[in-house]
Amino acid sequence: MRRTVAALAAPLLLVTLAACASNSPSEDPSDPPVAEAPQEPEDTAIETLWIDDSWTVEDLDEDLCSMGMSETIYSEQDDMFTCGPNAAGADACALEDDEEVLCIVNALDKQAVRFDSPTAADPDAEVWPSEQQPVPLHAQLPDGAICSTVTHDHDQHWNSMFSWYRCDDNSELLTKESIDATFERGDLWISERSVDKGEPESTRVVTATFAGR
Fold it and tell me: How large is the average pLDDT for residues 84-99?
């Protein structure tokens, strides 16, 4: 009798399991994928760089600072300055030892100059203040392009705007005003990028790099 009941129960169990399987929800290939929540862009990273052993340093015989010293616009640090005319290209300088001064000339190519400067070593030397907000030596964009500063802007740009930053992919960052208005600053920096002299589009800045030790 027990064998008979067991024999009848087995087919009944299989039917029940089949019915449960047919009633379970299944994925329809035509169902649209579930959209993921958009990620917030990361804040702009503020970095500094300074001259080290990997740089090419040219020794000068003249004291560029004897022609005048002023606050550099390429650093947020108080001990940085610039010397000489714009043509000298000494973007950001610092007094190293005694009277020795090191200056960044080209940050991307790691080029610098070094000279002795009694002027810079003089604690009473006059340093002209800068009227501009500090700006980075170069900025990196989301696609990896790096935009660095230029001394003069003689080109024509979209809607008569100005550009003080050229990028290594031949695009440029535009501003309606001076160089320090190139970036909209906050936790996340924004700039206006123009490609082939076309209308600029807003782009975020991944990294802004200033001179600094």
Answer: 88
Decide if pLDDT at 201 tops 70. Answer: yes
Please provide the size of the chain in residues.
213
- Write the DSSP string, 12-67: HHHHHHHHHHHHS----TTSPPPPPPPPPPPPPEEEEE---TTSEEEE-SS-GGGG
C-alpha separations of 145 from 74, 107, 160, 167 in Å? 20, 15, 24, 6
What pLDDT was estimated at residue 151?
A: 77
Which residues are CB-neighbours of 128 under 8 A, at least 6 positions away? 68, 69, 70, 71
- Average pLDDT of the chain? 86
